[in-house]
Structure formats: C-alpha cells, structure tokens
Model the fold of this input.
Amino acid sequence: MKTTLEITAEPLPRDLAFLGESLTAFNDGDVGASARKALAVFVRDDAGAIVAGISGYTAWGWLYVQWLWVDEKLRGRRIAAGMLDAAEREAVARGCKAAWIDTFNPTAAKVYQRQGYRPFGTLPDFPVGRSRIFLQKHLAST
Done:
C-alpha cells in the first residue's frame, strides 16, 4: 500500500469524524466501551446569555472537565465551585468514580484544589513561563 502524509491547519469535518470513530472503535476493542457522553453546565444572566460554563464529558467512569470559564465580572463568587459541584453530581449519577481537569492558570489551580482536586502531574513551560497542572478528584457516591 502506498501512503502519503498530509499536514493541514484546516482538516475537513468528515476526516476528523472518521479519525474519532476509528480511534473509538480501537479503544472499545482494547479496553471496553467508554460510554462517552457530553456534559455541560451553563450559568446564564437575566437575558439568557451565558456568563459562565463547563464543557466536558464522562467516559470509562471518569468526568473530564475540558473547559471551565467564568465571566470576569462574576469571578470570586464561587460560581466555578457551583458548576463543578453540579457537574460532579451528574457524573456520579452516570456512574463516575473520579474526575480530572487541567489548567495553566495558578489561580484556577487553587480554585480546583479548594474543590478537592489534587495535582497528579505537571507539564513545565506549557505555555512558556507557566506549567500545565493536571488535577484529579475522587467522587463520592451519594
């Protein structure tokens, strides 16, 4: 079989879907079905605009928080804590036993640690001058 190598900054959605489906099929055969399911938590203002949110997913008994954002005007009001609590409750309802999140923001890392997350690894100089911190938390069943 002859192959070619292609590098692109604009992959086609169908090519990314094929890649994701192929990796999912491999992983399902290797370690079992992930039961991956999206999970999002949003905070909206009176007009319905999103002012804070979490996006991630549950898979293999874990919650992964990919994105967590709070509008600057609302920071310091424990909104992130409330969203994490809600996401964790939903993850437990889905059968998850643990959660993980990563950040390169030292303030965010402190917020996550106050929520019970503990660092398990760092990636220095990602981005340069900072370290990406990986944190995890055991989720107690209620």
User: Anything to note?
Assistant: The first strand starts at residue 37 and ends at 44. The chain has three helices and six strands. The chain has a mean pLDDT of 96.
